[in-house]
């Protein structure tokens, strides 16, 4: 009697799908929710696991659908990506992205009504960006910033009453990611010094706001130290882009900007939950950096 063989997906089959998900970027999303959860006082610990799953699904679904919408451009500018290279069909990617986005909203709803509504709003921002916003010169970067702001507030929504006073904190990732996204538009053909200059000013304002957060109402040495580290990592590559907005300098700046967002989250974590909690957020950053050596960030 012949032996039955079970066919299992090989790594070569699965890797294109993993590439679609942008593992380094998805990992950074965990830092947003952890920071928001600290702002909310870290109550209801049973809600945290589904929220962490939700944020990964939302982010992964968004980047997959982004590639689905970009396939015609990618065939020219980035033919090595999974869909234009033919390693993943556009239909399969569209189904995967839609399922992940829906799963993100569902997982957040399991954590509570407010978190479910916040996830739904964030999913709406993601779809708006993928389908329309990304093609708009100025609205697109702001739209992307709104997605990351929603991600931070997803963690805050564990305590719905906290949203009433904590929502301005969403401006930090909003302005930060708006600046990074505006610069990223020049990754292929180069950018403009005007855009780089505005991004540099925006990032400087975020750093000043983080310094203020670390000083008021009571000084947090950990938060101030982490803000200094963020400035050290962030400012040189964006100054380089301002001086020479070429594709190579822009790619370095965008990669640094995306991965360094975890430091912003760690500052918030230090202010609202202490140095030990912010260290846990930094572990997320280390994981994202490790993954960035194996998978593309942009």
List keywords for this structure.
single chain; Tetracycline Repressor, domain 2; 76% helix; 298 residues; 0% strand; mainly alpha
Task: Explain what the structure shows.
The structure is a single chain. The protein has a single domain, classed as UbiA prenyltransferase (Tetracycline Repressor, domain 2, Orthogonal Bundle). It has helices spanning 11-21, 23-39, 48-69, 71-77, 90-111, 113-131, 139-156, 163-166, 171-184, 193-215, 221-243, 247-273, 275-292. The protein is mainly alpha-helical and 298 residues long.
Report how far apart the termini are: 51 Å
Number of domains: 1
In round numbers, the mean pLDDT is: 94
- Which stretches are poorly predicted, pLDDT < 50 over at least 5 residues? none
Helix content: over 70%
Proportion of residues in extended strands:
under 5%
CATH fold naming: Tetracycline Repressor, domain 2
Q: What structural class should be given to the helix and strand makeup?
A: mainly alpha
Number of strands: 0
What characterizes the major β-sheet?
A: none
> Which CATH class?
Mainly Alpha
Question: Could you state the order of secondary-structure elements as H and E?
Answer: HHHHHHHHHHHHH
Going by CATH, the homologous superfamily would be UbiA prenyltransferase
Shape: globular
């Amino acid at each position: 009697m012949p032996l039955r063989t079970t066919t299992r997906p090989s790594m070569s089959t699965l890797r294109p799908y993993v590439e679609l998900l942008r593992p380094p970027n998805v990992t950074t999303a965990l830092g947003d929710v952890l920071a928001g959860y600290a702002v909310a006082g870290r109550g209801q610990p049973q809600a945290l696991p589904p929220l962490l799953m939700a944020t990964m699904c939302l982010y992964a679904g968004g980047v997959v659908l982004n590639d689905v919408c970009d396939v015609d451009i990618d065939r020219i500018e980035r033919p090595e990506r999974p869909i234009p290279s033919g390693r993943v069909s556009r239909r399969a990617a569209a189904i995967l992205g839609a399922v992940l986005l829906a799963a993100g909203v569902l997982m957040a709803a399991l954590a509570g009504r407010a978190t479910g509504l916040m996830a739904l709003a964030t999913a709406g921002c993601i779809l708006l960006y993928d389908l329309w916003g990304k093609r708009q010169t100025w609205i697109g970067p702001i739209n992307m910033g709104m997605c990351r702001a929603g991600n931070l507030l997803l963690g805050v929504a564990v305590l719905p009453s906290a949203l009433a006073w904590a929502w301005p904190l969403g401006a930090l990732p909003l302005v930060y990611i708006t600046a990074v996204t505006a610069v990223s538009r020049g990754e292929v053909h180069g950018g403009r010094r005007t855009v780089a200059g505005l991004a540099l000013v925006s990032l400087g304002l975020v750093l000043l706001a983080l310094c203020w957060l670390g000083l008021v109402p009571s000084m947090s040495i950990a938060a101030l130290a982490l803000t200094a580290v963020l400035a050290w990592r962030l400012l040189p590559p964006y100054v380089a882009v301002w001086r020479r907005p070429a594709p190579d300098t822009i790619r370095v700046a965008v990669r640094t900007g995306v991965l360094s967002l975890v430091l912003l989250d760690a500052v918030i974590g230090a202010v609202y939950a202490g140095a030990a909690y912010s260290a846990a957020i930094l572990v997320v950053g280390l994981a994202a950096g490790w993954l960035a050596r194996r998978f593309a960030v942009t």
